Amino acid sequence: MTQKGKNNDRNDSGLSHGLRAIGHFLREKFDLDQDKARQEEVVENISKGVVFTGPNLWILIFATFIASLGLNVNSTAVVIGAMLISPLMGPIMGIGLSLGINDFELMKRSLRNFGLIVSVSIVASTVYFFISPLSHAQSELLARTSPTLYDVLIAFFGGLAGIVAQSRKDRTTLVIPGVAIATALMPPLCTAGFGIANGQWNFFVGGAYLFFINTVFIALATYIIVRFMKYHKKEFLDKSRERKVKNYMMAIIVLTLVPSIFLSYRIVRKSIFENNAERFVTTVFNFRNTQVLDYKTIYKSHRENSQIDIMLIGEPLAQDVIDNISAQLPVYGLKDTELFIGQSDGNDRIDINTLQQSYSQLLEEKNRKISEMESELGRLSADTLPAYDISLEAGAVVDNIKNISLSRQYVRDGNGNTVDTLVVCFVVREDAAKKIDTERLEQWLGTRTRSRRVRIFVE
Q1: For the chain, how big is the Rg over CA atoms in Å?
Q2: Cα distance between residue 402 and residue 45, in whole Å
Q3: What are residue 312's DSSP bridge partners?
Q4: What is the pLDDT of residues 54-89, one digit of tens each?
Q5: How far is CA 237 from CA 103, 221, 246, in A?
Q6: Which H or E element spans position 44?
Q7: pTM
Q8: DSSP 285-341
Q9: CA 231, 232, 233, 236: dihedral to nearest 10 degrees?
């Protein structure tokens, strides 16, 4: 073998050794077997969270009322609190676990309790919204009616984090509460209850739709991690029963995944459309004397065309300009989209420069008033005496003081101009027969209040 061939063999050997070392390092760092609990312990812990009786059901009802109240008054903090309280994750993770280990009994318990918690949550939220005097849909409610691709990804990755945390020996981390907040199972059910109580079925469908997506992808994530960690599957002595159970499980998987794939596909299409529409509006509508006041998108998934409605202010666009803009829709992936532009006519033109100038003048006036108020506040703060602190300290400086009262007075000339300031102090003696060292008190007050003139009156 030539020297060159030997060098190549050594280089190949060194490269393969380096790749093996990197692979070993990565396997060691990302190994899920570290701190892994026994399978029996994980199954037992998740199984406990599947069953809903007594206290669990009451906690679920209270969490539903809290979430409904938060959605009703548009309080994000209250909604987050309800998500932390609600025990909805148990049956969903039980479904994914039972699929992963062929535990048909756990599957039946999980599905039975899953139906129970969904029914209880919707009924409780419906009752709340039926008696609530607030029937207007706030932004927190509206956010649960239109699921997006991000909701799918959040549910999936949240489910992955949840089952990994559940499979550890130490389950006291903040992962489970974080998953409960991120996946947001409770608010969609409450939104569905709002829709029933107010007869707005789009809210019911949207909320149930989002909850279904979260459920499917959390269960799917649980199944994937269980199989990745190679949990032992249950074996059946009766092979025919085992085949029947596997057929049932396969049917459940298909019936669950097929609709979710269809729904996910629609969500992806809608998200792509909205992103393309935003890019189209921000890029194409860039005119000097015309600006976009507002726009909205309407996505339609069937044979109907989607729609973009745009409201313009400023100088109206000519028809040939509008035709040119419409011709650019396919360039931005908006081939089957109709464009509707609303703008003022020639008699109602809005001068953008004038409008911006008016806004600038309003902003300057507001800033001027803020500056004046800050100056006045600073002056008042400087003139205010720390009477509470001085009253506490005065007793340690001079004896026989029962009460003390302080005020800063202004000395003005005949024209009303301030020429000097004066600190006036009224003292009530604790013992009327004893005197007070007024000279010492006056000197101390002058230093303490930074005043040249101090007058003391003793009662």
Answers
A1: 36
A2: 67
A3: 292
A4: 788 888 888 888 888 888 777 777 777 777 777 788
A5: 14, 29, 14
A6: helix 39-50
A7: 0.56
A8: ---SSEEEEEEEEE---SSSPEEEEEEEEESPPPHHHHHHHHHTGGGGT-TTEEEEE
A9: -170
